[in-house]
């Protein structure tokens, strides 16, 4: 353990500001499915195989059928075997086109055989071990298990998607062998997004969860656009060392720019992709035509993306790469320290598991004598902690704090984060049982460097006056989705803008609450562009007194789908204002079942 802990490590290339994910499901609930993983593996001594199977956790965490889950593990392993044979010097293909055409040609025959398993005499086609590679025979056995579980529509969908992936693998091999030089990024990623198998991953959600997305819904332009954007996001940000940094390097060389400029470009690119993905998924979930299965499919795809994001992509990895430190330990096995938080430290992330209590957390950090500034604190899947009391971290500070799925956590002390008031930039306490309390928001309001706060999936019923401090002008994201909020009182959001922060857009998400009333002065203190998401609440009125000031800044907007608002007369102030109307994002359905966008001058002729 080094003694050089006076300040955080210096980076050769600075991290772009705002490298923070906006996806609602930025952490994957993989831990709930780990018993299935352990049962299916039974080979923990083979660490590479064990590690590879964790992809199954991330992509299909809601699979409850042990047999299907085991098939998915086998499928992931087989994909990596095929990938290794294509790319590695010890593989059968090693980026050589003749070998690629031969072996992937066998995969094309697999697809033909799945569609037509018998010959003209209605007998199964015989395939010799000497004719196909063993791992291709294995692929056939695995794919057949998935294939037979599907209906006819899904079977043809499966074949189309897997053929496209195989085309991408062969195309990528051709580019590698001929050292192809690309003129633009779109051309570079056209093959890459096929060969990383992302669309296959999403499609297999149907198998994992026993769903059927009807063909009309699957072909719906909005669904196809969502799948395209998800594939782009994952294809361009998959596997930190493999693709993200390749993406950075490719752009640097292609446009002759610096690494810092390239990192900034990709940071902005991913943030734009996330915004589009969230909007498209919300639109599908709110659509009248959406069946229960497409809604579940979309939610699971978002979880799969968010879970993969957490461990794999630029948004998290660029922001977290740093020196590795080890906190004090009382045992040689650092992952099973007796009731302390020094169980796992990875890239200066302190992770506390399910046997930790608030007392042991406090004791652990009280004993740290040297390292006082850490990158991240994580606490998840715990069933013993009921609160984060005052001064729980003693004088150890964190850049980010993430508390997830601690169902017994109901309170946070006013001084719980006292040691991090000048260091924490991101705070997440979600999927817990937090109750509304002044101490919680007083604790948050002291974090003067905070840029994002996520309190989603709790039991908050109100937001107190001046919930966020007057010095928190750096805040750009506040997420309070899926709580029990019913009223937003005056002065709920009174953030001040100083030192140019009036130019920093702020996103406030209040989706899926029970909000029926908003005070006229609830957002009066916001004097900068705001994206306010009020989707799926119980709102019937949207008044000019409440929202006109907020919408006066460019580019501000309010997302109000999933409410049933009195549009006639109630929204005349929006209808008659050509600059306001585009800022009311929807689709907004009125209380008379019509869409606001369909209203005409005649509808408002009797309004004063």
TrEMBL record:
The keyword Signal applies. The keyword Signal applies. GO terms for cellular component: plasma membrane. Keywords: Leucine-rich repeat, Repeat, Signal. Gene3D superfamilies: Farnesyl Diphosphate Synthase, Ribonuclease Inhibitor. This is Uncharacterized protein. It comes from Medioppia subpectinata.
């Amino acid at each position: 353990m080094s003694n050089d802990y006076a300040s955080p490590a210096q980076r050769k290339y600075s991290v772009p500001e705002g490298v923070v994910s906006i996806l609602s499901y930025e952490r994957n609930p993989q831990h709930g499915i780990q018993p299935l993983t352990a049962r299916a593996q039974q080979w923990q001594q083979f660490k590479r195989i064990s590690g590879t199977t964790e992809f199954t956790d991330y992509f299909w965490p809601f699979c409850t059928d042990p047999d299907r889950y085991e098939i998915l593990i086998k499928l992931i392993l087989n994909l990596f075997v095929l990938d290794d044979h294509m790319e590695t010097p010890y593989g059968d293909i090693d980026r050589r086109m003749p070998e690629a055409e031969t072996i992937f040609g066998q995969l094309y025959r697999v697809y033909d055989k799945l569609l037509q398993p018998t010959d003209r005499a209605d007998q199964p086609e015989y395939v010799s071990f000497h004719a196909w590679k063993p791992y291709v025979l294995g692929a056939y056995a695995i794919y057949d298990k998935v294939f037979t579980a599907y209906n006819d529509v899904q079977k043809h969908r499966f074949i189309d998607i897997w053929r496209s992936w195989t085309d991408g693998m062969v195309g990528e091999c051709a580019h590698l062998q001929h050292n192809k030089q690309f003129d633009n990024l779109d051309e570079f990623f056209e093959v890459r997004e096929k060969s990383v198998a992302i669309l296959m991953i999403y499609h297999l959600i149907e198998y994992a969860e026993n769903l059927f997305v009807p063909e009309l819904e699957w072909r719906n332009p909005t669904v196809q656009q969502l799948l395209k954007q998800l594939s782009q996001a994952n294809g361009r940000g998959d596997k930190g060392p493999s693709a993200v940094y390749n993406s950075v390097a490719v752009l640097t060389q292609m446009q002759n720019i610096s690494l810092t400029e390239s990192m900034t470009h990709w940071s902005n690119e991913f943030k734009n992709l996330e915004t589009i993905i969230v909007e498209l998924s919300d639109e599908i979930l709110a659509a009248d035509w959406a069946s229960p299965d497409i809604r579940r499919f979309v939610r699971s795809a978002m979880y799969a993306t968010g879970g993969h994001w957490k461990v794999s992509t630029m948004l998290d990895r660029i922001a977290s790469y740093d020196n590795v430190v080890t906190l004090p330990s009382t045992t040689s096995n650092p992952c099973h320290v007796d009731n302390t938080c020094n169980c796992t430290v990875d890239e200066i992330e302190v992770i506390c598991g399910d046997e930790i209590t608030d007392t042991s957390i406090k004791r652990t950090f009280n004993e740290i004598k040297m390292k006082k500034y850490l990158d991240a604190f994580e606490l998840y899947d715990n069933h013993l902690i009921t609160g984060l009391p005052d001064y729980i971290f003693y004088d150890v500070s964190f850049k980010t704090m993430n508390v997830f799925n601690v169902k017994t956590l109901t309170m946070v002390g006013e001084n719980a984060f006292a040691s991090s008031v000048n260091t924490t930039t991101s705070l997440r306490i979600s999927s817990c049982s937090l109750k509304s309390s002044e101490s919680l928001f007083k604790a948050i309001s002291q974090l003067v460097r905070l840029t994002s706060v996520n309190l989603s999936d709790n039991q908050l019923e109100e937001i107190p006056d001046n919930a966020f401090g007057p010095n928190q002008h750096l805040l750009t994201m506040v997420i309070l989705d899926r709580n029990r909020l019913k009223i937003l009182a005056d002065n709920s959001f009174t953030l001040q803008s100083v030192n140019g922060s009036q130019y920093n857009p702020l996103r406030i998400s209040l989706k899926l609450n029970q909000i029926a009333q908003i005070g006229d002065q609830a957002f009066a203190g916001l004097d900068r562009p705001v994206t306010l998401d009020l989707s799926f609440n119980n709102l019937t009125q949207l008044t000019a007194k409440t929202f006109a000031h907020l919408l006066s800044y460019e580019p501000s907007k309010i997302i109000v789908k999933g409410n049933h608002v009195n549009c006639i007369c109630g929204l005349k102030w929006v209808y008659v204002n050509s600059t306001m109307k585009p800022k009311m994002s929807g689709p907004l359905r009125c209380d008379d079942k019509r869409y606001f966008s369909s209203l005409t001058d005649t509808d408002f002729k009797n309004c004063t």
